[in-house]
Amino acid sequence: MTTNELYTTPAGADRPGQGPPYSPRQVRPAGVDASGGHTTVMVVDDNLTDVWLVNEALDESGAGSALLVASDGEEAMGLLERIERQLIPCPNLMVIDLNLPKGSGFDVLKRIRSAFRYNTVPVVIFSSSDAPKDKREAMRLGATAYIEKPCNLADLPQVGEQMKKLMAGDPVH
């Protein structure tokens, strides 16, 4: 069981009359940020197991948050558009996989860093790639941190602590 809320973008949500901009899948209390508001984390990953890893990492660190989930680059761009239009809350943290269908994580990162509404939000590239060129490119494009997806669950608390620090505005090493 988790303490996070999970929101996903249903098909057709970008078209008028096709439902809300996001819908709850699992409703439980979210974490509370320093200002007393709920924390929100946007996760862009096509692998539901990796979304679960982010969810568990945040839970284990005590940073339970509502999750906005996009499963590909196109859905991520749609979420970013809704954030820009203030239809959904601006997240406290964005976690992006590099290898996505319908656009890359680099494309999503470029869009984030080019928009005024959320260009200061910490962005974590959460990838299985350990290629130095991917890390360099992510940092060049404005990623706040690059975290490799853990190979075993024992590393999950450390990942959660890093994400929690980023949401608090602290640097990670």
Q: What does this entry look like structurally?
A:
The chain is of the alpha/beta class and 173 residues long. The chain has one domain (37-167): 3-Layer(aba) Sandwich (Rossmann fold). Helix content is 32%, strand content 18%. The chain has 5 helices and 7 strands, in the order βββαβαβαβαβα. The protein has helices at residues 48-60, 73-84, 105-114, 132-140, 156-167; strands at residues 5-8, 23-26, 40-44, 66-70, 93-96, 123-127, 145-148. A 7-stranded mixed sheet has the order 2-1-4-3-5-6-7, sandwiched between helices. α1 crosses α5. Residues 1-36 have low confidence and may be disordered.
Compact summary:
The chain has 173 residues and is α/β, with parallel strands linked by helices. It has helices at residues 48-60, 73-84, 105-114, 132-140, 156-167; strands at 5-8, 23-26, 40-44, 66-70, 93-96, 123-127, 145-148. It has a 7-stranded mixed sheet, with helices on both faces.
